[in-house]
Amino acid sequence: MLTVLFAALPFMIWVGLLLAPWRPWSTRERLEVDSSPMSVADLSGITVLIPARNEAETIGTILAALQKQGNGLQVVVVDDQSSDATASIATAFPHTRVVGGRPLPEGWAGKLWALEQGKSQVHTAMTLLLDADIQLLPGLLPALLEFKQREGLHFVSLMADLRRTSFWDCLLLPTFVYYFKLLYPFALSNSRNRYVAAAAGGCVLVDTEVLRHIGAFASLRNALIDDCTLARQVKQAGYRTWLGLSRGAVSLRPYSTLVSIHDMVARSAFTQLGYSAWLLLAVTVLFIVAYGGPFVLLGLSLTRPWALAAWTAMTLSYLPILRYYRMSPLWALLLPLSAAFYLGMTWSSAIRYWRGVRSRWKGRVYSH
């Protein structure tokens, strides 16, 4: 009897996930570019604010893509103490101002300090916060602006399409988006509930007055998960936010090796858990039961039906992400392997923290 009860646990976890009314596994929250010809958009009400630290490889591509979005768009690049040609490349583009970043003060995260320095250069009604590795395909920014105005939103963000060029990024990057959606269900984040908020910081279109009202970016200067922190402050101030997927915002940063993906995940995984060892243990137990349980129980005839049902529900929950990114459904069979890597990277993040390193990124170490 106890064996059957244990076998039912992973089944209940995965079926419960599929039946959750907010559908965290769904990809229905999305914004794509219309492929039909469209008139040249007036973007004179938007300033693009780009924090850039050693982004010589991508900054030219990013700025060239912005030139194709429409007329009147202003761009501000904050050169965050780069040691490469980031500033000189950016200077060559029209309607682009380059701000030389000052040294990072104590108590600030690098990206937020760069945005804080650049915000004084924004004099338009809206600000597009854009990472220096996010390329916008033609028509994406006009579509984002039209959607924001039509829905009466104050803050809209897009989860960029991450590059998939190797076994490791195919195995782990769709799972990254999948876990993000489980942790921050888009339907709940996009609701009027002020206590659930999320954003993808690589591409955010926000009313400039909203940023001023909430005191950004000084009000969240030490936040390592700055996008979700910003969205939470915007919602708690009474404004409306929206987060969705898009294939029209493309990340150019390569994550083709396990080491590069580990560094990306480990810099904030333990932060997501509030640096709580108890939550880390709870997540570990949950992963073992949810992913390891069906695999182990397949070997017992008494529990095999439960294990097969749980595995089927698990696979069904992952298929929408694979379908959205136009990947083979066979990758769903490797979801337990991907989960094992993510659990390991979360433990790695915790061990870093216990050794005194809160986060490490772009050559900077943030201690606690």
From TrEMBL:
Top-level EC class as recorded in UniProt: transferase
Documented EC number(s): 2.4.-.-
Membrane-traversing stretches: 6-22, 277-299, 306-325, 331-354
A Gene Ontology molecular function term of the record: glycosyltransferase activity
Pfam families: Glyco_tranf_2_3
Keyword entries, A-Z: Glycosyltransferase, Membrane, Transferase, Transmembrane, Transmembrane helix
Name under which the protein is recorded: Glycosyltransferase
Source organism of this protein record: Azorhizophilus paspali
